[in-house]
């Protein structure tokens, strides 16, 4: 029969749901197992509502990776995996207390949007979420939502990995026909890097051009620089202050690993990344409405900001944002770390020439193939660690082609050089087209995107 129970989802919000007894029993078993895993991983007893922060999300200041003992390190400033296969994303879901994007959710996204799911969803590149079902429930009842994502403009040079959240956000904007705000955290980069305010602001404008080149609809998109918009928008700043009042130093130390010697700008910055999660921060778009739900597509390393945001939201009378999390875009050298703009050989930049792309892939892309052709033909290659193959899962849209490549590489029929050639021929036109579109983006267009104004959408 049916009985009433409180959802047992790990670290989740309090939901009341009706479920059959068998499901409850299974969930209890799972919960018990998760508690054991939790204790093993953290050395702490699980306590509802207390994210496993202190010991797990290691400080960005210290020589972090070596004291985490086979654990993956993932926070907004560091990503490093203990295995060559990269970060164990299933474990991360447990550690962060988010939910897996499962088949059921994929099918719902397709049903509600009326579109086939984006290949980033089909292939598990966006793999985790918080409260996506609630967004879809509301949308089905004709209650709209808005998208929020962002970029820390730390240099002029953006690489292909930086495009992942924007390519996906553009798809979401198209299929749901909803407004989007994009935060350029030039203030954050000023606080964290050795850069001047002017440089950071200039990177905002330059990066905005690459973002605009992804094809966002100017009538539905607002891009803003924190340095400009914070001062110009009283409602935005009010939300920042509300968040600041409700988060203690202890909490941000736990969540972000700040220490006593971090500047106070860093310590209060999370409130600034939280504020765009609330529709009241954008009165020109939402006409003062406080209750337009927000969905944040982002890489999973940004989750600490939004765990904090979701924790504060109800205490300041605002809605918790929902999230869709992506995996990281691996460095050319292997999935153990993500691409970094500061190491030119680890990344394919959006400014690279066809020749540079070819050389980088051939020289630096970590191969899952065997050392000799004979061995490769005999034993086949490993697509799980092969960076060229991993990149194709991001950028080769054709499922059948990708499947065939996987089969052939695994069987040894396809050699590493041939696989690299496929990747090179996928990246070259993609980047050339990006460069072409970016060239079309004028300063006036950037101005237009960055002007606070009403956006074109209905609720
Ligand atoms: N902190 C992010 C970075 O350094 C930028 C950012 C701000 C962001 N708000 C966001 C990213 C929302 C994703 C979603 O890149």
From TrEMBL:
**Gene Ontology biological-process annotations:** tryptophanyl-tRNA aminoacylation
The catalytic activity of this protein is classed by the Enzyme Commission as 6.1.1.2
What's the top EC group for this one? ligase
PROSITE patterns associated with the record: AA_TRNA_LIGASE_I
Q: Which residues form the WHEP-TRS domain?
A: 20-52
Q: Mind telling me which Pfam families this protein's record contains?
A: tRNA-synt_1b, WHEP-TRS
Q: Which Gene3D superfamilies match?
A: HUPs, S15/NS1, RNA-binding, Tyrosyl-Transfer RNA Synthetase
- Organism domain of life: Eukaryota
Cellular component (GO) terms are: cytoplasm
What InterPro entries does the annotation carry?
aa-tRNA-synth_I_CS, aa-tRNA-synth_Ic, Rossmann-like_a/b/a_fold, Trp-tRNA-ligase, uS15_NS1_RNA-bd_sf, WHEP-TRS_dom
Alphabetized UniProt keyword annotations: Aminoacyl-tRNA synthetase, ATP-binding, Ligase, Nucleotide-binding, Phosphoprotein, Protein biosynthesis
Single GO MF descriptor: tryptophan-tRNA ligase activity
PANTHER family per the record? TRYPTOPHAN--TRNA LIGASE, CYTOPLASMIC (PTHR10055:SF1), TRYPTOPHANYL-TRNA SYNTHETASE (PTHR10055)
Q: Which family does it belong to?
A: Belongs to the class-I aminoacyl-tRNA synthetase family.
Q: What is this protein called?
A: Tryptophan--tRNA ligase, cytoplasmic
Identify the species of origin.
Oreochromis niloticus
């Amino acid at each position: 029969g049916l009985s009433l129970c409180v959802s047992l989802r790990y670290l989740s919000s309090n939901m009341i749901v009706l479920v059959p007894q068998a499901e409850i029993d299974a969930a209890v078993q799972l919960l018990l197992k998760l508690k054991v895993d939790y204790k093993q991983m953290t050395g702490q007893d699980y306590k509802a509502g207390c994210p496993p922060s202190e010991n797990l999300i290691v400080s960005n200041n210290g020589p972090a990776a070596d004291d985490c003992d086979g654990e993956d390190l993932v926070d907004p400033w560091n990503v490093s995996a203990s295995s060559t296969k990269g970060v164990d994303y299933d474990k991360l879901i447990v550690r962060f207390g988010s939910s897996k994007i499962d088949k059921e959710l994929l099918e719902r996204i397709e049903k509600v949007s009326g579109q086939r799911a984006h290949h980033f969803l089909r292939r598990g590149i966006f793999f985790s979420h918080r409260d996506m079902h609630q967004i879809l429930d509301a949308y089905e009842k004709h209650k709209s939502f808005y998208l929020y994502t962002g970029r820390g403009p730390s240099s002029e040079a953006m690489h292909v990995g930086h495009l992942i959240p924007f390519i996906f956000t553009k798809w979401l904007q198209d299929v749901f026909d909803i407004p989007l705000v994009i935060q350029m955290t030039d203030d954050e980069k000023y606080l964290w890097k050795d850069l001047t305010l002017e440089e950071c602001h200039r990177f905002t404008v330059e990066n905005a051009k690459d973002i605009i080149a992804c094809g966002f609809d100017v009538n539905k998109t607002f891009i803003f620089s924190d340095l400009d918009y914070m001062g110009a928008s009283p409602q935005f700043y009010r939300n920042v202050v509300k968040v600041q009042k409700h988060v203690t130093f202890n909490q941000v130390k736990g969540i972000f690993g700040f220490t006593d010697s971090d500047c106070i700008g860093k310590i209060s910055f999370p409130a600034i990344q939280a504020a765009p999660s609330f529709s009241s921060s954008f009165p020109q778009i939402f006409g003062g409405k406080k209750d337009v739900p927000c969905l944040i597509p982002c890489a999973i390393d940004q989750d600490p900001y939004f765990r904090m945001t979701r924790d504060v939201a109800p205490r300041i009378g605002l809605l918790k944002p929902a999230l869709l999390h992506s995996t990281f875009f691996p460095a050319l050298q292997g999935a153990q770390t993500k691409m970094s703009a500061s190491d030119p050989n680890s990344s394919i930049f959006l400014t690279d020439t066809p020749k540079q792309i070819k050389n980088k892939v051939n020289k630096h892309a970590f191969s899952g193939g065997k050392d000799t052709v004979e061995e490769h033909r005999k034993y086949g290659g490993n697509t799980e660690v092969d960076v060229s193959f991993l990149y194709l899962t991001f950028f080769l849209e054709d499922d059948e082609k990708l499947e065939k490549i996987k089969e052939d590489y695994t069987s040894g029929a396809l050699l590493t050089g041939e696989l690299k050639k496929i990747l090179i021929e996928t990246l070259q036109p993609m980047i050339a087209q990006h460069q072409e579109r970016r060239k079309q983006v004028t300063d006036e267009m950037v101005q237009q995107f960055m002007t606070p104004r009403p956006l074109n959408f209905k609720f």
